[in-house]
């Protein structure tokens, strides 16, 4: 092959490589979009339970008054 032939082959292989990378990038993009939608659905499904548990935690914290350590063990 002549030098022009090798140049053409190199350009063709480079183009093929870029096309493969573009295809893979597009597939990753679609996967990330799908994953984002799944995360939003899961977040929406868990949000009511999260609020409920957070409210229960606040109620429990308010119901237990801080205790005076008295002559208990002290650190330091």
From TrEMBL:
The keyword Membrane applies. Keywords: Membrane, Transmembrane, Transmembrane helix. The chain crosses the membrane at residues 6-30. Residues 50-59 have a biased composition (Basic and acidic residues). It comes from the Bacteria. Residues 50-76 are annotated as: Disordered. This is Uncharacterized protein.
